[in-house]
Amino acid sequence: PAAGLTGTIEGTVTWRGAPPAPLTTACGAFANPSVRVGAHKAAGGVLVYIEHVEVGRTIPSYAQPASVGGTIAKRGCVLAPAVQIVTPLPAGLAIHGDATAVKLRVTRPSGVTPFELQEAGRILIQAQPGVTRIEADDGSLGGAWVVASDTPYYAITDDTGRFRIDELAAGTYDVTFWRPPLPGTSNGKLVYGAPVVTHRSIKVDATRPARLDVTLER
Fold this sequence. Notes:
Number of strands: 23
Low-confidence stretches: none
Radius of gyration: 18 Å
Strand content: over 45%
Shape: globular
Helix content: under 10%
Strand order of the largest sheet: 9-15-14-11-12
Mean pLDDT: 93
Distance between the termini: 38 Å
Largest sheet: 5 strands, mixed
Structural class: mainly beta
């Protein structure tokens, strides 16, 4: 751990090609939740993070480390947010229901577990290091993805596609850009492939922000 770190990485994530089309399932029609494409092809909702940092800041701690993420809510035909990071570990995940009950399938690194989310109910589970996917068992809901890690260096792009990660030591970093896969449909159900993961290496010094712009594709 170190204090007074002044290195910064900032940039913009954009989208190449047509924006993802809306989806229709037994639940209804809704916007594709995997990525938000805005003006000038800006890609919002993309997770950007750095792991394996040898010298850096610590997650704020008083009695215990301040946790980030860990809450998912059913909102009509989607589970939101579509992507989030949970840190530090160990940490829990809370899934909140709305006015309609649904059967969920939670895929964690250790395996798949079914759950019943009752009306206005709540499910509590333990986050596991790596990636967790939460979706409806019948494929009717836009899924939610959780990346669980101990890194204190992360950002999610805003609606203009921008991100910023600061308090870095000078050095070279591997930056991960992570977004959920765009779901397809099969017999009216959503089906998913693998998440889309892009790595970029960048050198950071202490005098000025390092610029890192990335374009993502389907």
